Amino acid sequence: MASQFKYTENPHQTVRQERGPATRANIGKRKNNEGSAVARFNLRLGLGITNRVGTMWAAYIFCALALVSLPGALASGNTVVIIGWVAQTFLQLVLLPIIIVGQNIQAKAADERAIATYNDADAILHDSKQIQEHLSQQDAAIGDLLDKVAQLEAKLLKAGEK
Predict the structure, then answer these.
(1) Can you give the pLDDT at residue 36?
(2) Is residue 158 in some structural domain?
C-alpha cells in the first residue's frame, strides 16, 4: 500500500533562502535592486549621509562648529540668546550624530537577533525535512506490513474454505 501523502515544499522556503536573514545589509541590498534610478540614488545618498553623520567623529566636529558661535551668544548677554544657542545650536548639532550612533548600536544588536532567529528557523526547517523523510519511510514500512497482512488474510480465507 503506497502512501497517499505527497510533500509539497512551501514556496516561501525558496524566497527565504535567496534573501537570507532580515538584517540592515540584506534589506538595503534588496531595496537597491528595486524602484527607479532616482529612488535607488536617493536611498544610497541617504544611507551614505547617515553613515557619515552617525559617528562620534561627526559629533566632535559638530561640537567644534557649535562652539564657534558660543562667544557671540555669550557676548550678547541675553539669556534667551544663550539658551537658544544651547538648545538650537549645540544640542541639535551634537546630539544628532550621538543619537544615530546609539541607533546603529541597537540596529547591530537587532541584526544579531535576526541572524540567530534565521539560523534557528533554518535548523527547524532541516529537522522538519528529516521528520518528513522518516515519516515517508514509516509509511512505506506500514504499507509493506499491510500488504503482508492482506496476503495472510487471503491465505487464511482460502484455508478456511477448504
Answers:
(1) 86
(2) no
